[in-house]
Each structure stands twice: as structure tokens, then as C-alpha cells.
Amino acid sequence: MAVAGSGWSLARLAEALGSSEQALRLILSILMGYPFALFQRYFLFQKEAYLIHLYNVFTGLSIAYFNFGMQFFHSLICVLIQFLILRLMGRTITAVITTFLFQMIYLMAGYYFTATEHYDIKWTMPHCVLTLKLIGLAIDYYDGGKDPEFLTPEQRRFAVRGVPTLLEVSGFSYFYGAFMVGPQFSMTDYHKLARGEMTDVPGQRPNSFMPALKRLSLGLLFLVTYTLSSLYISDEYLISDDYMEKPFWFRCGYILIWGKIILYKYVTCWLVTEGVCILVGLGYNGKDQNGKPLWNACANMKVWLYETTPLFTGTIASFNINTNAWVARYIFKRLKFLGNKLLSQALALFFLAIWHGLHSGYLVCFQMELLIVIVERQAMNLVRDSPLLSTLASITVLRPIFYVLQQTNHWMFMGYSLVPFCLFSWDKWMKVYRSIYFFGHVLFFTLLLVLPYIRRLIVPRKEKLKRAE
User: Fold this and answer.
1) What are phi and psi of 128, to 5 degrees?
2) How far from 394 is each of 46, 388, 417, 456, 466, CA to CA, in Å?
3) Active-site residue 441, yes or no?
4) Which of 35, 193, 199, 245 has the most CB atoms within 10 Å of its CB?
5) Active-site entry in 67, 300, 320, 324
6) 410 belongs to the catalytic site
7) Model's pTM, two decimal places?
8) Taking the C-alpha atoms of 261, 364, 332 and 306 in order, what is their torsion angle to the nearest 10 degrees?
9) Residue 290 gets which letter from DSSP?
10) Exactly one of 207, 356, 381, 409 is catalytic; which is it?
11) pLDDT by residue (tens digit) across 421-453?
12) Spatial CB neighbours of 374, under 8 Å, sequence gap ≥ 6
């Protein structure tokens, strides 16, 4: 529920723009990060840390109230309880488990009581971002009590050694540049930001204005592209009678284009918020080997890779980077004790599915992602190890043809996987899948079964022995 007051004018403006009022409030909220960041740069840089924490709490809560009215109290409850868990339970595995259960159950309850058959922008949207942030904080705090010798380099980098105050936890949670849609960042980086250390020139404001402007401009370009494309490409058309009456090739082609366009709304938000993080300094990631500052610490998109990769794994590596890194760091790698990489990956994807929501479509989407990635890796290994296929793939004149075929296959089945993710409910995504005869499931389950036999036929035994060694 959005806050009342200016609603009548925003509603009219949203209608004129062909958008919903909630979506307009979201865009305005992430754009407000730029004046907020400018104020922090010029008036709070290297000031007392408590002032920065207070500023982040005030701006973050203002954004929450602007979007959801009094429902911002959900985040307040979870932040306060998280602080109490850290203080009362300390650096214990009990604190980690309690945090995980409480934060996830609260989020799941929110999904359950606010669920509709459509994608709505409501308080659970930023709350899912907050859930990961607070779980990560509990794990980093737990690692902070261990001997550094027993931690991996990554764990040492993020371990929280001190005891965060309520003001620090609140400022970390409500940071205006990441409250609504992310990205994820650690408490250690937040502390560096509050101390004025996230800069390429020690003691001076970061030279991050142009890098931030570039990400903002790129985000606005994607926003325009999505807005214009959405006039012709929509979720609703997928379940329309007109779509069902079209020929099979058209239905598949529409899913291919729709899958490409529908993700641009996420790309837009992440690029714009990344610009805010860069502007204030949180995006600083050290310097490269040539001494050039890197501003990708809060990057959620690798745009060039996303637009050019013909591989599913390439899209995964370029899309929602920070969330994927969070899941890898706090879920996948922590399941190492299972001794089974595939099982750990499946459990990590299951966590991602339920974290997104309780709709059946999320589970189907991530199940399909796992299946496609497994088959793609099998196919790539087959091409690499087969002299015939590797020779064929190395022919220069054929590479453009292979690339176009790969891209067509890539975005066709990326869109296929996104159908349940975007349509949520069983009846809707089943209707679309039936219309194309579960083409993706049939193809990839068949390949999963057939590729090992093809490998036996076309990969020489000596190549198999080499790979085994």
C-alpha cells in the first residue's frame, strides 16, 4: 500500500506514462538515491560515523514510507530483532540458525498473506533484499569470532570483528542506494563507507561522478527500451486467446523475444541503483593492475556479457551478480560438507526459488535452469573432447552461423524458463507450456539422457582417458 497524500497526482502521471503508480514510485525512489548520494558526498564525507548511519536510516525509512506507508514497520521489526539476536546470542551457530529461520519465515509469511496472481510491488519486494542482508550479517558476525586461520580468504574479507550497534545495523539495513532492489553488500564495506575509506584517493571524495553517470545513462537507455517494447510485448499476451491461435513457430518466437525484453525492467533498476552506490563510494573495488580505479563492487549486471553471450551460464554470470554471489558465498559454499557439488547447487537453487516467493512458477523456473546448465556443460564438454566437433567448431567461416544458432537456442529457452517465473500461478504457465507442447522439457530431458551415449560414440577412448587423468 503506497502512502496517501500525493497519490492522486502520481496516479495521474503514472496513467499518462502507461505505468502503474507502484512502478512509478519505485522508479522515483531509486532515482532519489542520486540527490541523497550527492548530499552525503558533499556534506557527510568523513564526518562522524553516527551522522552517516542516521542519514541512511532517515532516507531509507522515508523511501519505505513513500512506497508502502505504515507497512514499513515490517522492516523495522526484523532489523530490531536481528540486532537482539546478535547481542543476546553472540557469535554462535545458534544465532545463525535463529536468524535464518526467523528472517526466512517472516518473509514467507509476508509472501503468503500478500500473495496475488500478479506481480505486485509491495513491502515484500525490498524485504527479500533485507532478508539476505541480515542473514549475511549474522554469518559474517559468526565468522568474526573464529580464528582467521580457519577461515577462507573470502570469509576473512567479510568477517565482522567488532560488535555492531543498533544504529550501525539500521544504517546498514536502510542504506538508500540498495534498500528497494539491492544490490547486496557487506557490513565490512558499509563500515568502510561510513569511515570515508571507499575512495580511490585516500582522504578525498571518490572520483566516481562519471562512472556513476555512465551506469545511470545505461540504465535509462534500458528503461526507454523496455517501455517502448512493452507496448508490443507483454505477459498478458502469452495467455491470450490470440496467442493460443497463432502457429507453433510464432508462439516459440514470441517467447524468445519476450524473454529478452522482460528482463530489461530488472536491468534498469540494477544499473540505476549501481550508479547511486558508485556515486557515494560504495561501488569502489580497489584498483586494477594498471592502477585504474574499479567501481564494480556493487555491480549487479555485466551488460556486454549479458547482451552478447550465447550461453546460459554466461547469462547467469552476467545477471543479478550480487545476489548470485551472495547465494554462492552463504549457501552453496557452506554446503561443502555434503560432499556433492550437484546437490549443493540444487539446494542453492531451491533456496533462491523460495526466497523469490511461494508461487509454483519459481520452483519450475529454477529447476529448468539447473537442467539446462547441466545439459549445456555436457554439450560443451562433448564439443571440446570430440575431434570431429571441435574441428567443425573451429572453422572460421562457420562461427557466425553457430553463434546465431546458439543465441536463438539460448534466448528461446531462457524465455521458456522465464514463463513460470513471470506468470507465477500454475494455471497460467501451464497454459503457455501446453501451447508449445512442453518443448523445452522434452528437449532437455531427452538431451540429458542421450548425450552420454553420443559421447561414447564420437569421443575416442584416449580423449576420455586424458580427461580422467
Assistant:
1) -70, -35
2) 55, 10, 30, 22, 21
3) no
4) 193
5) 320
6) no
7) 0.93
8) -20
9) T
10) 356
11) 999 889 999 999 999 999 999 999 999 999 999
12) 342, 448
